[in-house]
Structure formats: structure tokens, C-alpha cells
């Protein structure tokens, strides 16, 4: 959470765990993962776009202009209109859920490097 100390984020995560466990009366494991996407979103991998444009024989100047537009643009992930870069993910502590998360992280890594 922006403009807060790390202990505030820790308290938010603890409260989320506590509320979820209390509401669901869980008898199985539960996992929370905190990820910071700020660095990952700063530079998406766009080499494949350059390669595709080159393979389609677009002029070098055109390709350079397109790549300048893509690589110099900054974007933010917005939730309720506010930029975010920290996420808390919660799931059951099962092999199935871990496999699903692993696949999603791999997709994310492939997209953003």
C-alpha cells in the first residue's frame, strides 16, 4: 500500500488471513503470496514484435519508430482507479493450486521478462 510502512502491509495481510480462516472455518492449509510487479511492468519484452516486423519486411525506420513508442511507454496497473504494484494472492495449500500459480507466474514472466 502506497505511503505506508511495511508493518502496515504486514497487518493488512494478517487481517486478510484471519478473516478468511474465520469465515471459511478451514481445516486445510492456506497460502498467501505477496508479489511486487513494479519492476516487472517497467519493461515488457517486445523483441518478438521487432522480429515479426523485420520478418514481414517493414522498413527499418518504421520498425524503429514503432519500437520507440512501445519501449518508452510507461503504464500502471489500476485497481479502483489507483495504481498498484503490490499484490497479495491467497489460495489453498494444495499441489493443484501450486501448479496453477506456477503456470500463471510462468505466463507472466514470459510476457514481461
UniProtKB/TrEMBL annotation:
Top-rank taxon: Eukaryota
Protein name: Reverse transcriptase domain-containing protein
Organism (species): Vicia faba (Broad bean)
Amino acid at each position: 500500500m502506497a505511503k505506508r510502512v511495511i508493518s502496515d502491509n504486514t497487518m493488512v495481510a494478517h487481517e486478510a488471513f484471519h478473516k478468511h480462516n474465520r469465515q471459511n472455518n478451514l481445516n486445510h492449509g492456506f497460502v498467501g503470496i505477496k508479489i511486487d510487479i513494479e519492476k516487472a511492468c517497467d519493461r515488457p519484452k517486445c523483441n518478438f514484435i521487432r522480429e515479426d516486423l523485420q520478418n514481414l519486411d517493414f522498413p527499418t525506420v518504421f520498425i524503429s519508430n514503432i519500437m520507440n513508442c512501445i519501449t518508452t511507454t510507461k503504464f500502471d496497473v489500476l485497481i479502483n482507479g489507483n495504481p498498484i504494484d503490490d499484490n497479495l494472492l491467497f489460495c489453498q495449500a494444495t499441489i493443484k493450486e501450486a501448479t496453477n500459480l506456477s503456470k500463471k507466474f510462468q505466463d507472466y514472466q514470459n510476457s514481461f521478462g
